[in-house]
Sequence to fold (170 residues):
Amino acid sequence: MGRFGLRLTARGAVTLLLVICLLGQVLAPGPVFVAGCLIAVLLVQPRDLLPLVVTPPLVFFCATLFVEFVRALKAGSFVSSLGLGLFTEMSAAAPWLFGGTALVLAVAWARGLPDNVRELREDLRAQVPKPRRSRDQPAFDPEPEGYFEPRVYGGGTPAASPETSPPAGP
Fold:
């Protein structure tokens, strides 16, 4: 089980990070987010590192959006209060957001993230069917001759002969 005796799936770690971020929005959003990122990446199962690594910015945004939405309900202008609150909070927390995401990436890398990426690549390669080739059949179907070419040979319209020309008027 590891050092902590508790291992979470990726969903559990993301949920834990969301709860920590929501609680941290009241105290100090940035430092609490970084601490939550560290706790989540240490408690997640090694096979679930890849989904966890990509979610901290989204989790932080969702927590901030929820808190600012609730705050904007009390304001006179909902839309402007929500927009200003999101802009202010995300701008103030940007260095913490970057630091927490980098910390998750560094710890996950040390815990085996490259193996997860390698396994994902192998799984994706196995799902792509290889084209079958035989010696008799080419790898592609040839186009029919002249299919995409204009007709350049032949006379075009036949020249008018006296028998086929219309009679002259009176």
Q: What stands out?
A: The helical segments are 10-27, 29-43, 49-53, 56-73, 78-111, 113-127. Residues 78-111 form the longest helix (34 residues).
